[in-house]
Amino acid sequence: MRSGILIILIIGLLVSSCGEYEKLLKSTDYELKKNKAKEYYEDGMYARVTELLEQILPRYRATEEAEELTWINAQCYYGMKDYLMAGSEFSNYADLYPFGSHAEEANFLAAMCDYYSSPRAELDQESTRNSIDGFSLFIKRFPGSPKVEDASKYIKELEDRLVEKSYMSARLYYDMKQYRSSIVALDNSLKEYPETKYREEMMYLKLTSLFLFAENSVPAKQTERYQSTLDDYYSFVEEFPKSNYSKDVNRIYQSTAKKLKINTEITQTNN
Q: 72 Cβ partners below 8 Å, 6+ apart?
């Protein structure tokens, strides 16, 4: 019986609270709305805060309280994990108040919002690039901040994700046997990320793509493309003389040399 009465009381309080809030939304008392928004913020009722601030912020834009209200708005979206809106609001704060009391944190959190929005490597990486740009700008603007070390770590993590994305995209062309596209994609990736941990594998895939592309070419273009394969072979063995792919690489060399009528015994003796 007591539990039933308690439930009824709770429901009554909720209904009453919702009714009061609905009246507040319709009210034209902007000072009341501002004060209630601050109360809701302290209580962690972020959705109500953002709804109220959407109504009243335009009225306070040119006042001394605008900075605080703008900051609260951004913090609420962040607290609700709405990183798209939070990132926009933190950037808005940073633009409007570059010397504000929360400027450093706003710049950092704007980049964090893009970080949280950054997807796994195989998906579009626009948010990843935006986050790298944001953290880089933060380090430039606030070189003495204690968050610089964290920002640098996030940049490294996000750059690794871009490297992986680049590798996966190039590898996809190879797996689909689109060797012309594979050559271009692998070459571009290696130029953009020369220190990639996938470098050996990607150079091997490029060499293999060159060979298979030559193999499947019309006779008139084969000599030129086999020569490109041979050039890539020398680059590969110079950089990775003891590669795990050495057996396959040597097989490609032997086949390519045969097509170009090169005496491999003489070449190997000279080497």
A: 37, 38, 41, 49, 53
Residue boundaries of the structural domains of the chain: 31-80, 176-262
Give 63's DSSP letter. Answer: S
In angstroms, how far is CA 76 from the centroid of its own chain? Answer: 23
The Cα–Cα gap between 142 and 94 comes to 13
In one letter, which amino acid is 26? K
230 C-beta neighbours (distance < 10 Å), count? 22
What is d(CA 109, CA 73) in angstroms, rounded to the nearest whole number? 13
Mind listing the pLDDT tens digit for each residue in 9-50? Answer: 444 444 445 678 889 888 888 899 999 999 999 999 999 999
Q: Using CA atoms, how far apart are residues 165 and 170, in angstroms rounded to an integer?
A: 9
196, two tokens: 């990639």
Cα–Cα dist 116/172, whole Å: 26
Query: Is the pTM of the predicted complex or chain greater than 0.85?
Result: no
Beta-sheet strands, E only, within 109-179: none
